[in-house]
Write a structure and sequence with these properties.
By secondary structure, the chain is an alpha+beta fold. It contains seven helices and 24 strands. The strands form five sheets. The chain has a six-stranded mixed beta sheet, with helices on both faces. The longest helix is centred in the middle third of the chain and has 18 residues, at 154-171.
Length: 425
Amino acid sequence: MMRAPDLLRLATAGSVDDGKSTLVGRLLYDTKSVLADQIDAVTRASVDKGLDTPDLSLLVDGLRAEREQGITIDVAYRYFATPNRSFVLADTPGHVQYTRNTVSGASTAQIVVLLTDARKGVIEQTRRHAAVIRLLGVPHVVLAVNKIDLVGDPASVFAEISAEFHSLMNSLGWPEGCVHAIPVSALHGDNVASRSANTPYYDGPSLLEHLEAVPTDPDTAPIGFRFPVQYVIRPRTAEHPDYRGYAGQVAAGTVTVGDEVLVLPSGTSTTIARIDTADGELESAHTGRSVTLILADEVDASRGDVIVAVDGAPEPRQQFTATVCWLADKQLRTGSRLLLKHGTRTTQAIVGSVESVFDEQELTVTEGSTLELNQIGTIAVTTAEPIVADDYDVNREMGSFLLIDPQSGNTLAAGLVGDALSHLV
């Protein structure tokens, strides 16, 4: 039986006019992930614009405002595949005011493709995105030095930009071997899907070859089983009069029939009697698998509770330090009363204080009392109900949360449990 190709989640980031949309369009085009009628439409639109070759950026700039302005505004998810791997790509905006969208797109990524224009090098937005990517715990990053065909001495330009970028990433504490730089021309396809003869100074893989080789295993510290309960299934049928199943997705670890577990925050202990799926029963389930757990005892568990392994069970928290990226136009102030959504639980929360603010350009942390749009800082949080959370640097799934406006329901901040800024400075 053939093994199905594995899945890699990636995101793009970069400044305006660095050619990000063209690069994404080139990836889709060269992997034959675009329908013929889409190519025809892009070709016609390119001719109308007076271009001699298809403008591949039109394949991804789907909103009318994006097409008119020539920029990317919203996060869009693209799907493509090679014989070796399937890909989900979050195409994020480059404007400073859309940094919040970059946070959203990169939050689940296993690698980020960060673009820079070879004529500009590492600029302010490159540094901002690098800091955000590191803060979010993305395991791998590749710098695509685009428009390399437009500089006079591409070899020296690439070497200089690559050295500066690696120095930046080292200062951010990036692990060795997780940062790469590739010279590309998205317009002509050099080093995008295949290696180009136009860059003899570069002997590494093409961007697509690199994406196919990136490890997809979680790069986090090992923790025990974590299972946020999403829904309690009670069919109440003649065939299953006493059925009570707890549906959700395994957030960390592995669970096996017969394992002893705790239901948190109550602390009730029981064992796993059965693991159900739409395709039948399983003996065990691992991270990312959606299942329904049948417990050996009747326990009081509902949506928002977390079923965990007895060994290494986390202590439910109501007071903790967190790092947040503020995504709203209005300020975050000390004493703000908000809603906090962690996993499947939503509870009231108070921001006790804004303890520090991160300067992503100087890579320094200063004292502060408020957070503005796109600022990153450390805050103290108190919740009305306990949450079952791990530190973000241990597990991204169980260490992340959202802060929500209780009146409008709008998302105000993306949060990471723990002082993630301590890893950046």
